[in-house]
Structures are given as structure tokens and as C-alpha cells.
Design brief:
The complex is a heterodimer of chains A (149) and B (463). Chain A has 149 residues and is of the alpha/beta class. Chain A has five helices and seven strands. A five-stranded mixed sheet of chain A has the order 4-3-5-1-6. Chain A has a two-stranded parallel ribbon with strand order 2-7. The termini of chain A are far apart. Chain B is built from ten helices and twelve strands. In chain B, the strands form two sheets. In chain B, strands 5, 6, 7, 8, 9, 10, 11 and 12 form an eight-stranded mixed sheet that branches. In chain B, strands 2-1-4-3 form a four-stranded antiparallel sheet. Chain B is rod-shaped. Chain B starts with a helix and ends in a 6-residue tail after the last strand. The chains are: A alpha/beta (149), B alpha+beta (463). At the A-B interface, α4 of A face α1, α2 and β2 of B.
Chain lengths: 149, 463
């Protein structure tokens, strides 16, 4: 009986702690960019303009390449909500419409952070959205003077 | 209208070529156009399917690479009119028991084109759709392509077909002409040569120009003409031989028959007996021939008779007298048949005088050699006879009648080297010949009849 009570308390704890953990992750989005071609600082409007495919090139003329986590991942879901204010499906339809009409190039979606980091590090003009990174080859872009969104 | 071989061949070849040219001109382009259209439809359908697959991957896998590639490919196609994403929405009824699918255009490239989701292909555009289904979007990719390229391709095919059929027709015409000439020229040469051969010119030959059946025909023709020439030569040789043989046969026949009778016999296979109202029959005989011949062998006897009768033959032939036959040492001939004439008594008497004279000379000649000569007796009578051939085997021309019997009796009643004639003869010739009346003589079977010896032609009369 006592063991049953302990188990119940454990599951209650887990149930309360996990959402808090996720919320803690949602709070820490960072923007990373290729070391060479991407500017080190942007304002929020410039960032949204690039991420929505409205701004296709950086000021130095380099093509802006988007690298995002898939919307099926927690980071991707949070990013949709936070940056695009859309669901994952809405984001897909949004980029499909742009791609279909030839107005923009769709982002490259990744399942893992490591893949995204490697891609951004190797692709000139690439910009990605992550929670955090230890990759020294990437630079964290300041948005409105902050390194986290 | 009779067509020449050349025309027939040319028309046959041209008919085939024309059919082929028409096939190239009409049927072939239709097939090619259908093939072109099918390919075009398939190509457009495949493009739509490719885009649809790309869209599905993009919406389910969040991988836009394939749809971007497919769209790049489609957008770069100059024939493209539009490419649209048609969204299928389920519209439920108020009671939410049934629904209908409503098609709306989600996006179109280029975005200034107004696309009707229900539009179908027409003469100017081909529309193809490919469905896709993703959790967030269900619909189809619709592409529209211009048929301008097909129309252009169709024109090119038709122009090429027209040019090809034109070329084929004229090549066919040229080949047909050559073929017709190649066949007809030797055939016409054969015809001309055959006509000349038919006219008797067996020196004709044709040149063999090919190794085909026409060439073999030429060789066969040349051989035929050569064989005909040989055959003709053989026929000519045989004809010449037959002519010689016929001549001999005719001469032989004429030797035993008068020419008119011989001709009638050859022409009709028979000779009818004819009545002659007035002919002169002449008989000769050698007196005491039987006793003389007993001292001669048969060959010598025959030689003597042959010699004498040959002389008689020449004489009577000269006077137009027909020899009838010889019986032993007797010689019988008749003047005035088969060709009737009015001088037959004179002819016979003149011949008799010559026969008597030549026998007198011959006897004199033999006597001079110490041999025994022949005394000849001659009897002549004029009157009616029947002449003709009797029997079917070894037939001989002969005369019958009392005139013949009387002449024979006159000969037997004659004397050595005398010409004994009847009153009938005498009455005719008496003005030109000197005759001696012998009075009436008893003749076997005829009783007593008057007879005359012909002494000779009167001195003031030309023979």
C-alpha cells in the first residue's frame, strides 16, 4: 500500500516536472548563422522577413538559406508558434504556396540539431533556429541585441 | 484502246507508287500526329504526377526539394500555360449526413492566370491532372500546356510528308520509266524481229541485254530463228528433191499418158474416157519379124526394137502425134488427140512417110554391114475412137473403136515399106499426096474395103 502511494506520488511529480522542463526549453530559442555570410546582428523584423522567405538575400548579396527543425520536433513546434505564429501544417502550406509560385525557396527541415548545425556551418548564407548550441563553427546572431528570443 | 507494254508497266508502277505516296501524304502524318499527341499527353501527365508527388512529399516529409525540382522543370517549359494546386474540400450538408467535394484553386503559377478547376483539354490547350493526398491538404495538380508546339510539329510532319511523297512519287516515276523501258525495249525488239521472221527474214536476231526471263526469251528467240533457218534449208532441200522426183514422176507419167490425161488424172484421181469424132490411127509392123527374130538373141532383139521405136517416137513427137503403145514389133500411135486438130490425117501420113524413109535407110545401112534389115508395113485410118484409161493398176492410155481395128487391118494388108491408107484418109489427103489405088481388098472381119498406097507428097505441095 505504501509502495503504491509512493508510485502515485512519483507519477504526479513526473507529470508536473516534465511540462515545466519543456517550458524551460521553449524559453530559449537562439538564431545561428553561417560564420561567413550571415550578419552578426538583426532586428526582429529583419529576422522574420528572412525566416518567412520575404527577404531572399543578405545585404552582401549572399542567398539566404533557411534551416529549421521539423515541426514534428518540440523545437520545431515551438518555433512555429513563436516566430511564425502558425501550426506546423500552416507553415508547410505557407512555404508550399511560396515555392509553388516561385517566390521563395523553402527551408530545409531537419530531424536532429546536429544535422542542422552541420548544415548551417557548411552552407554560406544559412541561418537556423535552435534552442542552444555548443558548435564553435556557428555564430549566434543577436536579435535586437539579444542572443536569445 | 490498246495500251503498250511500256504503258502498262509504267501505269502499274505508278499506281503502286501513288498509293505509297498517298499513304505517306495522308495516313502516315495522321499516325505520326497521333503518336506526337499521345507522347505530348503522356509527357504532360507525367509532369503533373511528378509535381503531385513532390507536393505530397513536401507536405508529409517537410522536404521541399523534390517539389522545387519538379516545379523548376515545369516552369522552365515554354509550353506551360499554368500549373495549379487544386484543393478538394468536403462540403457537408446541413444535417451533416453527406458531403460533396468542392474544388478550389489553392495556388497557381503564374498567379495572374485564372484557372477553372473543371476545364478540359481543347484545340489550343491540353490539361492534365494528377491527384495527391496529404493529411493537411487533399487535391490535385493541374497543369495546362499550349498545343502550339504540337500544331507546329504537325505542320512540320505534313510538310515533311508532302515532300517525302513528292520525292517518292518522282523516284517511282523515274524507276517505273526505267523499268518499263528495260522490259519493253527488248520486248518491242523481239516483236519487230518476230514480224520480220514472219515475213521470211530468218537472219534476224536480238541482243540479249539481261540475264532475266526477257534475256532468256531473247536467247530462245535467237535459237528458234536459227532452228527455223535450218528447218527451212532442209525443207528447201527436200522440196528440191521432191520437185526433181515429181518431175521424173511426171515425165514417167507423160511417157505413158497424154499430158491432158495425166493432168486430169493427177487433179481428180481419174481420167474419163472421151469420144473423138475424127482422129487418125497409125499402125506399123515389121514384116517377117518372127522369122528374123529367131536368128537373134533376146537382148539384140530388144535393142533393135528399141532403136527403131525410138526413131519412131522422135518422128511422131515432131508431128504432134500421141504414141499409144507397142505390141511386140507393132507400133501404134494416133493423131488428133488428146488435143483435137484438123490436120491429123496429114500429120499421120507425113510421120508415116518419115518412118518408112528412115527404116529404108536403116535397112540399107544394115544390109551394107551384111546384116538383115526390117521391112516395115504401115496402115492408116481416120475415124471415131474412144480414148481413155481402164483398170486401176498399171493403167495405160488406149483407144478403142472400129477405126482402130480398120487401121490395124490396113497395116496387116499393107506391103513392105508401103503406107496403106483407107478411103477416109485418102479423101482427105488426096489433093496433097500422090496415092495409088489398090482396089478393094478383103479384110478379115470387115469384108472388102478399098485401099490406097501413099506414094509421096505432090511435087508442087509443101509438106
Amino acid at each position: 500500500m505504501k509502495q503504491g502511494i509512493l508510485n502515485f506520488i512519483f507519477f504526479i511529480f513526473i507529470g508536473l516536472i516534465l511540462p515545466l522542463s519543456i517550458n524551460a526549453q521553449e524559453d530559449s530559442l537562439i538564431i545561428v548563422g553561417n560564420e561567413i555570410s550571415v550578419p552578426s546582428e538583426l532586428n526582429m523584423n529583419q529576422l522574420k522577413s528572412v525566416l518567412k522567405g520575404e527577404k531572399l538575400r543578405w545585404n552582401n548579396g549572399t542567398k539566404a538559406v533557411l534551416a529549421l527543425m521539423k515541426t514534428s520536433t518540440p523545437v520545431g513546434t515551438y518555433m512555429c508558434n513563436k516566430i511564425y505564429n502558425m501550426t506546423g501544417n500552416e507553415l508547410n502550406k505557407y512555404f508550399l504556396a511560396l515555392v509553388f509560385q516561385g517566390k521563395a525557396k523553402a527551408p530545409t527541415f531537419f530531424n536532429s540539431v546536429e544535422e542542422l548545425e552541420v548544415y548551417v556551418a557548411k552552407t554560406p548564407g544559412a541561418i537556423g533556429v535552435l534552442q542552444n548550441t555548443d558548435d564553435k563553427l556557428l555564430k549566434v546572431i543577436l536579435v535586437d541585441g539579444k542572443n536569445q528570443l | 484502246m490498246v495500251l503498250s507494254v511500256q504503258s502498262k508497266i509504267l501505269m502499274t508502277v505508278l499506281s503502286i507508287v501513288l498509293m505509297f505516296a498517298l499513304f505517306i501524304l495522308f495516313y502516315y502524318p495522321q499516325g505520326q500526329e497521333r503518336y506526337l499527341l499521345d507522347n505530348y499527353n503522356n509527357e504532360i501527365e507525367n509532369l503533373a504526377k511528378t509535381v503531385a508527388l513532390g507536393v505530397k512529399i513536401a507536405l508529409t516529409e517537410q522536404n521541399f526539394e523534390s517539389v522545387e525540382t519538379a516545379l523548376d522543370f515545369v516552369r522552365n517549359d515554354k509550353r506551360l500555360q499554368f500549373v495549379s494546386i487544386i484543393q478538394n474540400d468536403s462540403v457537408w450538408n446541413k444535417s451533416h449526413t453527406s458531403f460533396t467535394i468542392e474544388k478550389t484553386v489553392f495556388k497557381t503559377y503564374p498567379d495572374n492566370v485564372d484557372v477553372d478547376p473543371k476545364s478540359t483539354s481543347n484545340e489550343y490547350f491540353i490539361y492534365k491532372s494528377a491527384p495527391f493526398s496529404a493529411p493537411i491538404l487533399d487535391g490535385e495538380i493541374k497543369v495546362g500546356f499550349s498545343t502550339t508546339e504540337i500544331i507546329k510539329g504537325r505542320k512540320q510532319i505534313r510538310n515533311a510528308s508532302a515532300l517525302a511523297s513528292f520525292i517518292v512519287f518522282f523516284i517511282g516515276l523515274f524507276i517505273g520509266h526505267l523499268l518499263a523501258r528495260r522490259i519493253s525495249v527488248p520486248v518491242l525488239a523481239l516483236r519487230d524481229a518476230a514480224n520480220k521472221v514472219g515475213e521470211g527474214d530468218l537472219t534476224q536476231s536480238v541482243v540479249r541485254r539481261s540475264g532475266d526471263e526477257i534475256g532468256e526469251l531473247s536467247t530462245a528467240f535467237n535459237k528458234m530463228v536459227k532452228d527455223l533457218g535450218k528447218a527451212q534449208e532442209e525443207v528447201e532441200e527436200r522440196t528440191e528433191e521432191l520437185t526433181v522426183e515429181k518431175q521424173k514422176s511426171d515425165e514417167l507419167l507423160l511417157n505413158i499418158l497424154p499430158i491432158e490425161t495425166a493432168e486430169e488424172l493427177k487433179r481428180t484421181g481419174q481420167a474419163k474416157a472421151k469420144n473423138y469424132d475424127s482422129v487418125t490411127v497409125l499402125f506399123t509392123d515389121f514384116r517377117d519379124f518372127t522369122s528374123i527374130s529367131e536368128h537373134m538373141d533376146a537382148n539384140q532383139l530388144v535393142a533393135e526394137l528399141h532403136h527403131c521405136f525410138s526413131m519412131f517416137d522422135h518422128i511422131i513427137k515432131k508431128h504432134g502425134i500421141e504414141k499409144i503403145k507397142t505390141i511386140g514389133d507393132a507400133y501404134m500411135c494416133v493423131a488428133g488427140l488428146p488435143v483435137r486438130n484438123a490436120t491429123h490425117p496429114f500429120d499421120a501420113v507425113n510421120a508415116a512417110i518419115e518412118i518408112r524413109d528412115i527404116m529404108l535407110a536403116y535397112t540399107k545401112e544394115k544390109n551394107a554391114k551384111g546384116e538383115v534389115g526390117f521391112d516395115i508395113r504401115i496402115g492408116i485410118n481416120t475415124g471415131h475412137v474412144v480414148a481413155g484409161i481402164v483398170g486401176v493398176d498399171k493403167f495405160a492410155y488406149d483407144i478403142w473403136g472400129s477405126t482402130v481395128n480398120t487401121a490395124s487391118r490396113l497395116e496387116s494388108s499393107s506391103e513392105s515399106n508401103k503406107i496403106n491408107i483407107s478411103t477416109t484418109v485418102y479423101d482427105i489427103i488426096k489433093d496433097k499426096y500422090d496415092c495409088t489405088h489398090r482396089g478393094k481388098k478383103n479384110v478379115k472381119g470387115l469384108g472388102e474395103i478399098p485401099m490406097y498406097f501413099v506414094d509421096g507428097i505432090k511435087k508442087n505441095i509443101n509438106p
